[in-house]
Amino acid sequence: MSQDDDFGPRPGEESVALPERFDAGLHFIGRLRTPWTRRAACPKNGTQSEAVCTAVVDPPYAPALQDIEGASHLILLYWMDRADRTLVRQRPRHADGSRGTFSLRSPARPNPIALAVVELLRREGDSLRVRGLDCLDGTPLLDIKPYYATTDARPQATVDRAGTR
Ligand SMILES: C[S@@+](CC[C@H](N)C(=O)[O-])C[C@H]1O[C@@H](n2cnc3c(N)ncnc32)[C@H](O)[C@@H]1O
Question: Which family does it belong to (predicted)?
């Protein structure tokens, strides 16, 4: 078994049957180019790597990049296209027990939307060179928003893991 195969069901995990119909549709606006081709090789979050990655925006959406250089940091929303969408309880690799999907940042979730706050290094035409990603090369891009430290940062926020299972 390769390292990347170790994403199958683990003890304590629970899956559900997903509805047959979707409630909404979305359009990918581009792709994220990163150095990682195996999930096991990806950083667990964007602070764990200094790698410079590229958000390649598809031509129809290029006009939406106007003024983007005014932001030092961006929120990128992306689609974890290789994630399990059925898991409602899951067991992180190094955890003692299972945890509810919505208490985790795992890519496995009913709508596998991921987010990262990235540093915008520069714009090159329809592409953005950024630092702070954690996803596979080719991951679809859903949206780009400016990160506002004034309204988005919550330095006092905590996550208490004691007693979770
Ligand atoms: C823990 S998630 C965090 C994602 C995002 N920063 C967030 O908080 O929503 C990052 C992990 O997702 C996995 N991953 C990366 N790209 C993926 C993709 N396209 N499909 C499925 N899993 C992916 C890798 O194992 C990576 O380490």
Answer: Belongs to the tRNA methyltransferase O family.
For the chain, how long is the longest CA-to-CA vector?
49
- Ligand 1 neighbour 81 (Cβ under 6 A): yes
What is the number of other CB atoms lying within 10 angstroms of the CB of residue 65?
16
pLDDT tens string 30-78: 999 999 999 999 999 999 999 999 999 999 999 999 999 999 999 999 9
Whether pTM exceeds 0.85: yes
Amino acid letter for position 64? A
CATH H-level superfamily of 24-149: YaeB-like (2.40.30.70)
Instruction: Among 39, 82, 93, say which to mutate for ligand 1: greatest number of ligand atoms within 8 Å of CB.
Output: 39
88 CA → ligand 1 middle, Å? 17
User: Counting every residue, how long is the chain?
Assistant: 165
